[in-house]
Write a structure and sequence with these properties.
With about 250 residues, the chain is α/β, with parallel strands linked by helices. Helix content is about 45%, strand content about 15%.
């Protein structure tokens, strides 16, 4: 059963619709840099996953089908039939599920720093267990080290702290439930069903989803293309906002 997730809708009412989907343990604020530019050309839908920020926190485990079903239910409530989709990390996983589930509704697709299969399963089980027993905040330092390069953490502590706050404030059950969704996810068999023109964005120094994960997605989706952003870790849209925003805009308007 779908959950009525928290969302924000902005941009011209008659513009093409673009859905932005976040990484695990963040809120829709993760896309603030992109939204500032994209909302001038698109009707932006930003939302929080079940278990995150302003959305309800049902008991886990969750599945990628649950998370994808939530966003489709949201779009149906808003009366939106056709849309483009841009997701990062688990947001990209949801994007692949949505674009393969309802290929006739997705106009264009952007997949950032993501994977169609992300093991080992044991690590996601352990992360979910840690969140439930000790809260998400105990993982903050470990996660931020994987999300940002050392130089970015030194030069932009305020941006790192903004993301750290999102992570600390994520409900433990919501974080754990999404970890379990990633643990059980295998989208490889779905990728050939995606019809939308697809751009894969990878980050050269991403320890969570290295470029080879993006290459596997690119090779499996018909006519997909890929770019690699240098000197960036997992949250590439925050480390290199202008480059990523430009790539998204060019892909969506080409």
């Amino acid at each position: 059963m779908s959950v009525e997730v928290h969302y924000e809708l902005e941009g011209p009412e008659d513009a093409p619709v673009l859905v932005l989907s976040n990484s695990l343990g963040t809120t829709l604020e993760m896309w603030d840099d992109q939204a500032e530019v994209l909302r001038e050309r698109f009707r932006l839908v930003r939302y929080d996953y079940r278990g995150h920020d302003g959305s309800p926190v049902p008991p886990g485990p969750y599945t990628i089908d649950d998370l994808g079903g939530d966003v489709l239910a949201l779009l149906d409530r808003l009366g939106i039939d056709r849309f483009s989709f841009c997701g990062l990390s688990i947001g990209g996983m949801v994007g692949m599920w949505v674009a393969s589930e309802v290929p006739g509704r997705v106009e264009r697709l952007v997949l950032c720093c993501t994977s169609a299969l992300l093991g080992p399963k044991e690590s996601w089980t352990e992360r979910a267990k840690t969140a439930r027993e000790h809260g998400v905040a105990v993982m903050e330092e470990m996660v931020l080290e994987r999300w940002f390069t050392p130089r970015f953490r030194r030069e932009h502590p305020e941006k790192v702290e903004k993301v750290g706050r999102m992570l600390r404030e994520t409900p433990a059950e919501g974080y754990a439930g999404c970890c379990e969704a990633i643990r059980e996810m295998d989208l490889r068999g779905r990728l050939g069903r995606i019809k939308a023109p697809t751009l894969v964005i990878a980050a050269a120094d991403d320890p969570s989803t290295p470029p080879e994960h993006g290459e596997a997605i690119r090779d499996a989706i018909p006519d997909a293309r890929m770019i690699v952003v240098e000197d960036s870790a997992h949250l590439v849209n925050i480390e290199h906002p202008e480059e990523v925003t430009r790539a998204i805009m060019e892909h969506l308007t080409s």
